[in-house]
Amino acid sequence: MAQPLFSIDEARLAAKRRLPRLMFDFIDGAAGQERAKQRNREAIEQLQLQPRVLVNVDQRNLEKTFLGKRWGLPFGIAPMGMCNLAWHGADLMLAETAVVHNIPLTLSTMGSTTLETIHQKAGENAWFQLYVSQSDALAMELVDRAKDAGYKVLMLTVDVPQVAPRLRDLRNGFKVPFRIGPKQFFDFAIHPQWSLTTLFKGAPRLANIETSKHGQNFDRHASRGKVDWGFLDRLRQRWPHTLIIKGVMSPQDARGIAEAGADGVYVSNHGGRQLDSAPPAIQMLPQIRQAVGREFPILFDSGIRSGDGIVKALALGADFVMLGRPFLYGIGAAGQTGVNQIVALLKNEVSVTLAQLGCPNIEDLDGSVLVGD
Ligand SMILES: Cc1cc2nc3c(=O)[nH]c(=O)nc-3n(C[C@H](O)[C@H](O)[C@H](O)COP(=O)(O)O)c2cc1C
C-alpha cells in the first residue's frame, strides 16, 4: 500500500527517499544557486487571498474552457524530459492521469516515449513540446510527426538558448544518454526499489530523437540559440493548429509573440532551471496580461506547490496553470498511485480555496480575490 500524500512537500520527501540521488536531483534541481526556484515559490506564498462568506458554495465547478476544449480541471502537466527516470513507464502514467482527469499532458521533445505512442494513449489531452537544437531539419521533422500523429497543440520552448549549468547534475555526473560509473552504481545499489522498478527494465532513452531521421549525433547540451523571430515565422507557416510559445517572461516579447500569430504565451522561468537571476514568474504575470490584452490565452507555471497557488495564478491573469516537478515527485514516490494522489490533492485544494473565496465557479475567478489588488 502506498503511503497517503497530504502535500506536495510530503511527496517530494517520499520521492527523495525512493529515488537515487542522481535522479532526484535532476528533477528537484535548478540553475546556479537555485535562487530563482526558491523565489518562485516564496512570491506565490506571499500573495494573500480575501476570504468571503455567506455565498452558497455548496456546489463547486472546476471545469475550464481553454484553447477550444472543456477541461476537467484548471491545471495540467508541464513538459518534462526523461520522466521515465523516475519510474519505468512514467510518461504513460502521466498520459493515463491526463485522460482520467481530463487535463492536458505535454510531451517533451526529450520525452522517453514516442510522441505517436503518447497521442494514441491520450488523444486530444496530449500536447507536444518542441525544442530546436543543432538541426532545423530535426525540429521540422518532429513538427511534421506531431501533425501526422494528430496533435492539435504545439508548444515551442524558447527559454533554453543553452542548457544552464545545474550544479547538482554536474556534481552527480548526470548525463543523457546515461553513463553508469562507480559513483552512480553505488547510488543505484542503495536505492533497490528504484533499481528494480526502473533500471532493470532498461535505462530510459530519448525516444523521439532516436526515432527521427535527423536525430543522429544529438547533443543535449548543444546550443539551442538559433531560435529567433524568423524561426517563429517559419514554424507558424508550417504548423496549422494551435501554437503556444513557452518560457516568456517579458511583456515586450509577449506582445511580439501575439503579433507574430502565435495562439498563446506560456509565462514561465522554467521552474528556475535556466536564469538564476530571473524574477519570479508570478511577478511578471500581471504585466504580461496587460501587454497582450484580456483575451489572449496565457498559460503559467513555475513554483506552484498547492491548489491555492493555482487560484492565485488564475486571479493574476493566467487562463490555465501548469505544474512540473509536483507530478514527478508523485511518480517518484509511488508511481501511478502517486501521480493520481497529486492530482486529487490539488483538485481538493483548489475546490476548498474557491469555497472560502465565495467563488463556486472557477471561470468567475478574477483579481478581486487577491488582497490589496
Ligand atoms: C525534470 C524536468 C524536466 C524538464 N524538461 C523540460 C522540457 O523538456 N521542456 C520544457 O519546455 N520544459 C521542461 N521543464 C520545465 C517544466 O516544463 C516547467 O516549466 C517547470 O517544471 C515548472 O516549474 P515547477 O516545476 O516549479 O512547476 C522541465 C522541468 C523538470 C523539473
Describe the structure.
There is one protein chain. The protein is an alpha/beta fold and 373 residues long. It is 43% helix and 11% strand. The protein contains 15 helices and ten strands. The protein has an eight-stranded parallel β-sheet. A two-stranded antiparallel ribbon has the order 1-2. It is globular and about 60 Å long. Bound molecules: flavin mononucleotide.
As a percent range, the share of strand residues is: 5-15%
In CATH, the topology is named TIM Barrel
Broad CATH class = Alpha Beta
Largest sheet: 8 strands, parallel
CATH-level-4 superfamily name: Aldolase class I
- CATH architecture field: Alpha-Beta Barrel
Task: State the domain count.
Answer: 1
Q: Which overall shape is indicated by the principal axes computed on the Cα atoms?
A: globular
**With helices defined by DSSP (H or I, 4 residues minimum), what is the helix count?**
15
Compose a concise summary of this entry:
With 373 residues, the protein is α/β, with parallel strands linked by helices. The chain has helices at residues 8-18, 21-28, 35-46, 90-101, 115-122, 136-149, 167-172, 182-189, 192-197, 207-210, 229-238, 251-259, 281-292, 307-315, 325-357, and strands at 64-66, 69-71, 75-77, 105-107, 126-130, 153-157, 242-248, 264-267, 298-300, 320-323.
Explain the layout of strands and helices.
Layout: H1 8-18, H2 21-28, H3 35-46, E1 64-66, E2 69-71, E3 75-77, H4 90-101, E4 105-107, H5 115-122, E5 126-130, H6 136-149, E6 153-157, H7 167-172, H8 182-189, H9 192-197, H10 207-210, H11 229-238, E7 242-248, H12 251-259, E8 264-267, H13 281-292, E9 298-300, H14 307-315, E10 320-323, H15 325-357
Parallel strand pairs: 3-10, 4-5, 5-6, 6-7, 7-8, 8-9, 9-10
Antiparallel strand pairs: 1-2
Helix pairs in contact: 1-15, 4-15, 12-13, 14-15
Bound molecules: flavin mononucleotide.
Flavin mononucleotide binds at residues 26-27, 78-81, 108, 110, 129, 157, 246, 268, 270-271, 273, 301-304, 323-325.
